[in-house]
Amino acid sequence: MKKVAVIGCGAAGMMAALSAAKSGGSVTVFEKNDKPGKKIYITGKGRCNVTNACDVADYFDHVRRNPRFLYSAVYSFDNRAVMDFFENNGCRLKVERGERVFPVSDHSSDIIKTLFNALKKAGVNILFGAKVHSVEASMGRVSEVVYSVGNDPMTREEFESVIICTGGLSYSSTGSTGDGYRFARDLGHSVVKAYPSLVPLVTTDEWVFDLQGLSLKNVSVKLFFDREGKGRIKPVYEGFGEMLFTHFGVSGPLILTASSYYEAGKQGRLLLDLKPALSPEQLDKRILRDFDDAPNKQFKNALGGLFPVRLIPVMIKLSGIDPEKSVNNVTRQERLSFVSLIKSVPMTVTGTRDFAEAIITRGGVSVKEIDPSTMESKIIKGLFFAGEVIDIDTETGGFNLQAAWSTGHLAGECAAGG
Questions:
Q1: What local confidence, expressed as pLDDT, does residue 356 receive?
Q2: For 3-195+361-417, CATH number?
Q3: For every residue of 373-404, which 3-state class applies, written as one string?
Q4: pTM (2 d.p.)
């Protein structure tokens, strides 16, 4: 029976420990917090978007970096397997818009409870309040974990396999402080620079700040980066959904997904389409009908059917049309320019918020140094990685948690049985 250490009791760590135990390993989990799954608890606004019920072949279209690295892990423990695991262990699930999967209870605590109970049943030893100081190797193979629990002195314990599941740098309040990167570097691994991802975007437009708190549904955005000498500029991201204006820029599900395409250190342009269901021609006809119904109305009073009340003065200002002008005096050119504005409201993006507000981390332990068929290090025998500590990241919608379940399951299986 192999002795297996799992560092981190989050999504990847719990699944890795459970998989290792079921594969015959004697498993000890080291968790610096006083409870399991602190990050799981806050995911999906406290509801936990467990996975996505899309066709498994389509899953990889939602992985932003290194999707091929995940083939073996995902196909060996896919979204259906994840759903079956929770259902079979007493946690009923439901599928919502966008194929997003949540517990029927809408409580992320039920996901944590299901995993924790399964770990106890499997005989996994979990040490809470355990700080891992280092992972030691000898002759190219993992040898020891050096740790302390609470105020106790440091302990050195031998293990045949160690799985690093410490997460990235996002939501540091949950314990994700980059320890895994340090362990990896100390053992000779390369770590790709980490950036916040699935995170709100920072803009410079003053009118955006005036709309703080306003949420828009059923809108679309395009994200661009200007590249000299590249000819026609194509958006790096196009999406449809819900967004929110904030005191620093924009947020909401649509923006969080767009942020995973943001190129750090560059200035970008975000174009907002307020009426994506209408073509410019259809929108122009709609505006004409509104104007014809009340030809003597002032422009500022004729837009109630088009926008939320708070958005109207901003759109008037951006249009450059005199708000006091009666709509029958709005010229065709002014109207067509207004249509164009509605379909492409411009914003200047200068960056993202920091790791404290990021759902996940972009970057991490280089996939070039990890065997994708086992999650084992190519440098140190018996060393495995799973979850967000690896240089993989996805769009929103349950895809990131699926990566954690899949890589954790594969790492645990191979760490105990290999």
A1: 86
A2: 3.50.50.60
A3: CCCEECCCECEEECHHHECCEECCCCHHHHHH
A4: 0.89
